[in-house]
Structures are given as structure tokens and as C-alpha cells.
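Predict both folds.
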Amino acid sequence: MQYNKQQQQTLFEQTHQLLAIDKTTLNTANLQPIVEKLHELIPYHEWRYYILNEPVISDFEYDELFALLKYIEEFFPAFAVQTLLLNVFLATLLKIFLQ
């Protein structure tokens, strides 16, 4: 898993956009792109943290991203992934280590 500088900058900016989301404004009409972005951002930040040991967001901010995904899956079950969040996390780590 490699990201060029432009991709990393974009992911960093998108992270802060998602962190600023007011959960009360979420609805089924605007969730699909948010969920897709969370599924892209969370593995990126795991890579920065666990593989590079160079996080670009705080632990709190990462927890907020993860909590947003969990909130969406809980209150909008149609957008829940087929696997548990923990399995997604473990699968991401496994992919990184197998590269």
C-alpha cells in the first residue's frame, strides 16, 4: 500500500472534512459517499500509524473517524458493511503486512 504525496494531501484534507461533519445532518441521501470515504481513510490512517509510525492525525481524530463509521452502521443499517469493523481493521493490517 503506497500513496504518493498528492494522494496523501487529499486524504488528509478529506479526513478533516469528515471530522467536521455534524452527525445530525446525516441521512440516507448523503451517506454513500461518506461511507466510501471512511472505508478509504481508515486504512490510510492505519497504514500511517502502524506501518510507517508517522501518524498525521491524533489518536482522538482517528477514534472519531472510526466512531462516525460505527454510528452510521448502527443508525443506518443499510450502509453497514458485511463484516464487523474489527475484521475490516484486521484484514487491512494483514494486507499491509503481506505486501
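Second protein follows, with its predicted C-alpha cells after the sequence.
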Amino acid sequence: MTFEVLDLVSPHYVRAVGNGTMIQLLSEPAVSLGAHQVGIVLSKHKWHMQGMTTFTGIVNPGWSGNITVEIMVNGELVIQPGDSVAHVLVFSEGGKDEKPLLFGDYR
């Protein structure tokens, strides 16, 4: 089994203040996984230190499109366009040489 790390980027400016404020971000780039791949959405440490909790999730085999990142804000948080907000670990089944496809100039 092999894996690759992809960055999910916010295309929008986000300013949130609150204790437990929930936000859904439609991230870029769009991702296309092969039939023998699965992704796991993970948070970035940088954002934990600023009061953001990222809800992890699974990206199913064969998924194609943008990924919605669900976050909870505790305090004040500012996300600029182009900021990396989460990672996706893409696991590929052994012997399969598929690479996840990225649509756009983000990476």
C-alpha cells in the first residue's frame, strides 16, 4: 500500500468569531480518486493552535469533485484565500499505480 498527501485550500476569505461556531468550506482543488484509492481528511496543526477543529472524514474510492471541510471555531479565526486548511491522505492499494488527479493550480 502506498500513500500521497494532498493539501486542501480555501478559495475564500473566512473570518469567524465564536465558541463552537460551525463552518463548512468547499475546498480546492477538486480531487478525483481511482477505484483502488481511499482518502482520509486530516487537520493541520497550525489551525489547532488558533482554535480550529477539523472534523475528519473518508473520501470514498472513485470520488470526483471538491471536498467539503467541516470546521469548528473556538475563538477568532481568519482564513485567507489560498490558505491550506486540511490534508487528505490518499492510500492506494498495493500494485496499483493510480495517482489521484487534481483539478486546478493548487498543490
